[in-house]
Model the fold of this input.
Amino acid sequence: MILPNDILIRATPDGQTVWVSQRMVCEACGIDEDYFEKAGRPRYKSSLSPSWRKVADQTEFFLGKKEGKAWRWGRKGGQYYYDYDHIPNRKPTCYRDMLPSKEELIGAVEDQKLDSSRTRRNRIVDTLDEKVKNYESVDDFIYFSTFTIGDKDIFDTRRARDLQQAAAWCRFLKNAPALIENGSLGFRTLTGLYKVCAARIEKLDLTGFRIKSAESLRKKIAGLPDGEDMLAALVSGKYCNDNRRILGKSEIVDYATGEVMKYDAHQATIMSYWLNPGRSQKDSKQTLYGLYAYDMECLNIEPVKLSTFTHYINKWDNRYLSAAERHGKAYAKNAFRPYVPSESLEYANSLWVSDGSGVVPYRYQDQYGKWRMMKMYTMLITDVGSRYMVGYSVSRKGEHVEDFRMLRDAMRMALLDNGKTEVMDFLSDNHGAYTGAESQAFLSLACAHHRTIAPHDSQANPAECIFRLFKRHFKSYFNLPETSWNARNLESMANPDYYDIMALPTFSEAQGLLDNAIREWNTTQLKCGMTPEQWFREFKNPAAGQYDARRYRMVTGEVSKRDISYARSILEVERQGVKYKYDIPNDAATVALIAKHMGYAPNLTVTAYWDAEGADLYTPGGVYMFSCAPAPLASKTYAEATPEGLRALGHHIQKGETYDAITEEFVEDVTRAKAMLSPNYEFNVQDSGTKEDYNALRERIMNGEYNRTLVKEQTKARKASERQERKLTKALEDAALARAKSKISDLSKYTK
Done:
């Protein structure tokens, strides 16, 4: 590799001389730098006349006469150079023959002169990007994608990828002084390197690593610790900062017991009006806000704005918990309360390389009904070692665009075939389908390491020969018009005089031919006596790791977007007409987690990555929330009840009872908190009252004891009635179960 400062041309009285840098000589000839310091340069210097030895002692010079022994040298800018004509070329070493010819070196200098400064800069940037790429680690991506503050995941896949790149730049720059010293970067000073790096990083606009100048970059790197502490230092302190939060900060304290109420003054007041207990007629939010604001003014507490009031009421968790009390149990049952899903009645199952190419021709009709021909653009993923075609995908009918969808479909097929064994290395070309932000994030998750070949260098693709052989093999299926999409070779094209477009297969038929061709390729015996499929399955790299369930589901599972606001604790998705159901936990912790990610949004549309083993739910921003197991299905009738169906029935009945419990607890907590808000509430909220004030408050509370006791008795009577009703329902269910005992033995263990 020839760097910009590797070659110097000087005119001397003896003619034009070409000088080659010590770095280039060491790299091309395999000579250690100590040789020049201890033998090469001293031997040449000792062969000169005394006058020229004095010149050699100068700080910066080039020798003007071609005298002395081999390794005629000079120095410029602290770097040593050697006269090309004085580099020894005797056997057995023949050092000069290991270097490019003098004409090639002069031509390289001329090419550099012809290049603009922008082109040279781009080359330097490309070289830096390559070197920084070596410092990237999939562990960094996993660290940031799973980074939590409290119990909340912070970064989506895009931001985690940005921080992964930022960490790589930091490691590279921490090692930069050593790289400059050995001359491997082509920079003379650290300042010059920082200027180029700062401009590049600013253009990348990485999360948590926004740089404006070389000086700010220097300070950033100097202040970063090493190891995992460096990763933590890249995370901004702005995340999960709630300094501006008002709701939840005005605590309500029961001074008789010391208990701190679950909801503060704002929350209790807002929700007490919103719950509308004991009333049929509902007031508007504007009216309720006026009542709330008046109560806050009486308590000398600044009310929140109307927008905050509305947002808080519209929060999904508040609507979830208050639905039964405000809108009635029938609405809550249909909107939120978990239901029992049922089943249908039984009576009436070491290096991967990717490349895209037009392989299969097919015919189709355009929008005007005219028959046209197109190549089915195919993305193939091949295991290089075994030559096994692991996965593939095709473009849409009438298109030949290579995009992220094709990459994900092909990788999904390959990963499902490979089980949960991790892809160790993935190589592709520089097409946007592989280098786009979405594709890079996906490959970082799917592969331990992924990279691209040098632009416009298909020979660097180790599977290029395999792809060529496969396309040649495929030509035997029918008379292909061409082998590649833009074929130029005359022999690669069919004779147009005998070309019949109606003889081509349809799109679906072409897919069938491709399937058969790949299956035949994978089962054809190699010279070693094994088929690619046998090799692939029996001889895998033992060093490969395993995917965890969540990561595997994200790269291989189906992807669906669903609004779970009214899902009633069952996530339902569909694929090819088959419905799948997953059990959403409805405990208080899960409800709180959903609410935290949902914020003030009235609905929560999640992204679900799912397969037969379960479903993982993510926020619209890509932050993981929780996982769901497949929902157990109960029987619709005791006539077809099974032990599994009875267990499922008990499970879902328990979920319904959990919903009733947490909603009742919610109403009770709000009611208790609001009851503590007497006209002298400031002594409950603020711990600043005197003993006399407190005694007066206690006296007023005792005066209202009778009214509160009356309310409690009425509440107890209502709950006793509800319990009696539930007992009656349970007795009817027990009677139905008793009728099924003749068909199912030992029912007790299924109906606990």
